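Hi W., the zinc ion complex you wanted:
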Amino acid sequence: MRSPFAAERLPDGRRHYSHQAVVARRALLAGLVVAGTGTAVGVHLGRGDDTAPGAVTSTGDTASAAVVTEAPSPPVSPAFSTTDAASPWVVVNKKHPVVPTDYVPAALSTVGGKQVASVVVPDLTNLLAAADADGLGLTLTSGYRSLSYQRGVHDNAVARDGFATAESLSARPGYSEHQTGLAIDFGSRSQPECAVQDCYQDTPEARWLAERAGAFGFLLRYTAAHTAVTGYAPESWHYRWVGVDLVRQMTERGVATLEEFFGVPGGPEYA
Ligand SMILES: [Zn+2]
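Structure:
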């Protein structure tokens, strides 16, 4: 059976999409067709590229029925880079370091005693106010971390836990999304001893974040179910600001990680 997305090849080499193909693709991009996320991982990792939002992957002449199982294409609007360290949709993981290595956000602001990229401030301020209104003691444990600071974090982790454990807990310098200023480690005023610890997940603040952070554009970045995809052990305190629009799109499609949503390789092995 011919895929509804298939293109006809015109004599001059250009591709012509039928009205049916255009309609089908629009429906797909609108999120009306939801593919299983399990399939999505395999397809995207197999493709092995850094598909930026806005890029529409042509199925070309080789399209077959198999394309029907393909995950939804990356969103087309609004388009933000997944590789530019200043982009709200940048994907930083063990396969994708911060570029350039010594990147520093152009604008940093201090919120809750920690530096964050200024672009995060409106949503972060609103999130903290909402948590405060709900009677929670939400704090910031970490925000922007420079390359040299991350080097210290990683070195300390290696010294304390050994190299293998440190690798699963702490990013190598140059590979931490904290360097973008878009990632935040939250804490708890009532249980400060649980900062950056597994017990944080049982604090009222962590439970509140799990439920509400998305409404402010923050994504729980490292979950227990996705360690193979993200390359990190679960961190109930680590949230990444991506904006409410992307959180909504990910929720609608039932995709939990940036890697799966954008088809960007991740995992525990460094590039
Ligand atoms: Zn973190």
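Residues 142, 178, 183, 185, 238 surround zinc ion (CB under 6 Å).

W.
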